[in-house]
Amino acid sequence: EVQLVESGGGLVQPGGSLRLSCVASGFTFRSYWMHWVRQEPGKGMVWVSRISGDGTTTTYADSVKGRFTSSRDDAKNTLFLQMDNLRAEDTAVYYCARAIGLVAGVTAHWVFDSWGQGTLVSVSS
Amino acid sequence: DIQMTQTPSSLSASIGDRVTITCRASQTITRFLNWYQHKPGKPPRLVIYAASSLQSEVPSRFSGSGSGTNFTLTITGLQPEDFATYFCQQSQSNPHFTFGGGTKLEIK
């Protein structure tokens, strides 16, 4: 069974840092792109970042670029999100998600087929 | 970024009802549209991908339709376990995916 378990959330002051972790099990972790998605209180999901299976390619949303860093330790089946210079607007539940391509007709469609249960990050003084 | 507008934001229905949720994209996304179900404290679950393809192990009472900018998720014959929040996601602009605001489906 595929399982993703996030941890590391908590209360932090503006300008502070946090490091989120996502431990994966039930699949060959190094073979998959992994993403972080967040949900601000009362709002919809927002894509944050992605990292390739070999860790060499990362992409970030403009809102976090230069402040957040995604990494992975494939030996420990763990995904990380280092969050620096946190702002009040970063307050959200953060989810890690596995991305796969599902074929419909002749086209591959990227989906998030497995998600964690989320970890809450609160940025407040 | 492609904006996704989902309506309604909340919906009350009874067991056995047929409900429809709509998602509109700010520009054409052909059929790059996915639907998820999310229950409190649980991970989101993929329900529909590519606008109308049913994800494995999802009951056939769930269906999706649409293309271009307008999409719908329909649940025919609501069951108790279907009460949850549903949200859409476009995957046209990989990896800058965007999501709808969600629809909370509640028991009437």
Largest interface: A-B, 27 and 29 residues
User: In angstroms, what separates the terminal alpha carbons of chain B?
Assistant: 36 Å
Structural class of chain B: mainly beta
| Overall 3D shape of chain B | globular
Strand count, sense and barrel status of the largest sheet of chain A are: 7 strands, mixed
Describe the fold and architecture:
The complex is a heterodimer of chains A (125) and B (108). With 125 residues, chain A is mainly beta. Chain A is 0% helix and 58% strand. Chain A has no helices and 11 strands. In chain A, strands 2, 4, 5, 6, 9, 10 and 11 form a 7-stranded mixed β-sheet that branches. Chain A has a 4-stranded antiparallel β-sheet with strand order 1-3-8-7, with no helix packed on it. With 108 residues, chain B is mainly β. Chain B is globular. The model of chain B has no long low-confidence stretch (mean pLDDT 97). Classes of the chains: A mainly beta (125), B mainly beta (108). At the A-B interface, strand 5, strand 9 and strand 10 of A face strand 5 and strand 10 of B.
Overview in brief:
Chain A is an all-beta fold. Chain A is built from no helices and 11 strands.
